[in-house]
Specification:
- The structure holds two protein chains of two kinds.
- Chain A is mainly alpha-helical.
- Chain A has one domain (about 5-75).
- In chain A, about 70% of the residues lie in helices and about 0% in strands.
- Chain A is built from three helices and no strands.
- Chain A is elongated, with a radius of gyration of 23 Å.
- In chain B, the strands form two sheets. A five-stranded mixed sheet of chain B has the order 3-2-1-5-8, with no helix packed on it. A five-stranded mixed sheet of chain B has the order 4-10-9-6-7, with no helix packed on it.
- Chain B has two domains: about 1-35; about 40-140, Cupredoxins -  blue copper proteins (Immunoglobulin-like, Sandwich), CATH 2.60.40.420.
- Chain B has one helix at about 5-35, and strands at about 40-50, 50-55, 60-65, 65-70, 75-80, 85-90, 95-100, 105-110, 115-120, 135-140.
- Classes of the chains: A mainly alpha, B alpha+beta.
- The interface of A and B includes residues 34 and 47 of A.
Chain lengths: ~90, ~140
């Protein structure tokens, strides 16, 4: 349990607190008129960067899992269930 | 079940929650910035009807199919419709809002450069929807006043 709390603490420090700070303490309104094109397209590009990064990590993990845990892998070992033949 | 580790699950949950918080806060902040209408924005009443746009400036000037604005000023569009649903779109300025009968929807923008841009209806509104277009004409700011 302590480790899980520790993990969430690390994540909070890394991501959640800066994000919350960014939202609630953003300098109120910028000088002059903001350009909605810039705000909207910047948001789009940031979101796309994150989406493609997450997509690459997830699909990379799945490809690696399929490759590493195939039956023909040199280091493949049966799971305890398979070894005992009992489920 | 055996005593296998739950760590991967917790890391996965943590990462997903952190990503969702980040995406939500970024989007919320962008929306907050974009929706904050400057106090000195000039109001332009925009009315959609089959199949053209009409505009009324604060001083009472009316235009049909063309909208003349000045560079460097902020404008607040009060958008409505006389018949069916339309959608007011200035693509180059990422202005897009529905025109709904009986409702006034507001959106604002501030033109940055002199030029001409297309205005287009983005909600299918009948036979000639495809040609329910207009022209946004951005002119030099008035230096005399």
């Amino acid at each position: 349990m302590k480790s899980i709390l520790g993990l969430f603490l690390v994540l909070a420090i890394l991501v959640i607190i800066p994000a919350a700070h960014f939202v609630f303490a953003a300098g109120d309104e910028p000088d002059g008129y903001l350009d909605r094109r810039v705000v909207i397209w910047n948001l789009f590009y940031r979101m796309m960067t994150v989406a493609f990064t997450v997509g690459a990590v997830v699909s990379g993990t799945m490809i690696w899992l399929c490759w590493r845990f195939r039956e023909s892998h040199p280091k493949a070992t049966p799971t305890p269930y398979e070894k005992e033949g009992v489920w | 079940m055996g005593h296998h580790s739950n760590w991967p699950e917790w890391i996965y949950i943590g990462v997903v929650i952190a990503l969702m918080v980040w995406v939500g806060s970024e989007a919320w902040n962008a929306e907050r910035l974009v929706e904050h209408i400057p106090a000195d924005a000039e109001v332009i009443k925009v009315t959609g009807q089959q199949w053209f746009w009409s505009f009324e400036h604060e001083d009472g000037t009316k235009e049909i199919g063309e909208l003349h604005v000045k560079v460097g000023k902020a404008y607040k569009f009060e958008i409505t419709s006389k018949d069916v649903n339309h959608s007011f779109n200035i693509h180059d300025y990422v202005v897009l809002l529905d025109a709904v009968p009986g409702r006034i929807n507001t959106v604002w923008f501030a033109p940055k450069e002199v030029g001409e841009h297309d205005i287009q209806c983005r909600e299918y509104c009948g036979l000639i929807h495809y040609n329910m277009r207009g022209k946004l004409i951005i002119e030099e700011a008035d230096t005399t006043s």
